[in-house]
Amino acid sequence: MEYATMTFWRSVIVFTALGVHRLWSSLIRPKVVNSILLPGTLVAQLGHVLGLLITGGTVDNTALIKDDESGEPQTGQDAKTRLPVVGAVIVALLPMVGCAAAIYWVSRQFGSDVLEAMTAMSVDRTALPTSLPLFFASLHRLLDLAEQLINVIRSCNLGDWRTLLFLYLAVCLTVRMAPLTGNVRGALGAIFVTGVLCYLIDRMTKSGVGDLSSVWPLITFSVAVLLLLLIMSLMVKGVVGLVKTCFGQG
Known about the structure:
The chain has 9 helices and 2 strands, in the order αααββαααααα. It is an all-alpha fold. The protein has one domain. The chain has a two-stranded antiparallel sheet. It is globular, with a radius of gyration of 19 Å. The mean pLDDT is 81.
């Protein structure tokens, strides 16, 4: 059950990151958004390019930010891999793995106090929201998680450049877990396949792959950051829409 729950929360991270990115892009120019998220874009782009090289794809005309209004990363006109289905999964997986690894490294270097404080609360490791009571219980727990993150940030020394750098990089890396343009299906396949493979390897070899204790703090922190960003983005979106309506622009 823990593998299924982990796969579910990884899906939540991907879709929440995608929602936050699209909300931001609807409020300000997408090129500005992607410029602000440049550290995360760099990690995701490197993972994407590495995935293409591993699977026999072609990498040309690569750019972190396009010159057009979209401002999305560019990896050339022909980015198809030579491995059907599997290639798309690998190409989608490596950017997410890169961002997750970068969050872990950044938290160890600059934000260990924040990550440790967030371990006081965690997403449920064993229960999936398969019923109405469990669904609303999960929503309540997520709101508590967002509140916990706010309290942790308020208790931090925001005058320390290390804390500010960690928070900035955490935002960039978590939001950039959103699939790159045209790779949503590959990302979903990557999440499902890796969950199944880890489960099968653990059951067949008893190698300890099933020890997910070191993974959950990272998942909890990523969910909390993205949920807080989503709530704040929706509030800003609502205020902007209300102002436009009041001034006759809606």
